[in-house]
Amino acid sequence: MDSKxxxxxxxxxxxxxxxxxxxxxxxxxxxxxxxLGGTTRSREKRASLRASGVDGYLFEKDKPLGDPxxxxxxxxxxxxxxxPDQEGDIVFEHHAxxxxxxxxxxxxxxxxxTTGVYGDRxxxxxxxTSPVRPxxxxxxxxxxxxxxxxxxxxxxxxxLHIFRLAGIYGPGRCALDSVRGGIARRIMKPGHAFCRVHxxxxxxxxxxxxxxxxxxxVYNVADDEPAPSHEVxxxxxxxxxVDPPPLVRFEDANLAPITISFYSENKSVRNxxxxxxxxxxxxxxxxxxxxxxxxxxxxxxxxxxxxxxWVAGVGPEMAGQIVSP
Length: 325
Fold this sequence. Notes:
Blueprint: E1 4-10, H1 14-29, E2 33-40, H2 43-51, E3 55-58, H3 68-71, E4 77-80, H4 90-100, E5 108-114, E6 125-126, H5 137-156, E7 160-165, E8 167-169, H6 175-180, E9 186-188, E10 196-198, H7 199-211, E11 217-221, H8 229-240, E12 247-249, H9 257-263, E13 268-269, H10 272-278, H11 287-304
């Protein structure tokens, strides 16, 4: 990489924030000077981004970038993490041609998708060669968005990389927070397991890909150990020194429709490709070490008397929930 780079993120949320901070740290170590920019849907968040040194802009479906050429000027690396709608990806809809016009200076494009594109596999393992056959609305929309961006790689050579993320967690956005908030439930559905990944391991994967771009690549990003959610909640409770909530059978849980949809899919996600092709070594190969690290990170901020970035408005509105990147 050259010394001067610019990352622009459509949807400067939880994952993008952690990526931006990691790139800044690389710059402080020498060799790479990163400028950061990105979009948000709220004026308050835009002000927060700008205060932190990120060039923030408003963007949503009915509000495309007003001057995309000046706003994205100098971008060498582009990350897209906005959620698609029924028509596909809103960035593609509004700014596909603008992004194509940035080539060849645009070295790398990353699209954050979801392992939900594989659909339900009744617990079986999937990898990047497995057929895409989503079984939920969310998965169907992500699959459509993937195809839109892949069409630009195939037809125009856009340096696209797709990252199919498992459930994202990290400091301020994990089972510790739901236990503390009194909203954690231990739902028992025999044979069912969720795949998840710590945000720092996502960041490591993205940076490895940035340094070794291979257009058209698709990567699963998950840890090594799919696990039932009730086990994760129990371990979080143990770390916090509180009694775990009682086990509740899935049939008796009276769950919200969105939660039921998460339980409607059951698959195990292989991550060997990021290890073999990108040389990724997971810092948090399972939820236990991941939750321990989250607790340590939170305690470090408390001991230093600092406000954690996820409290300052960078993190999600619903702590502990697995939502968009």
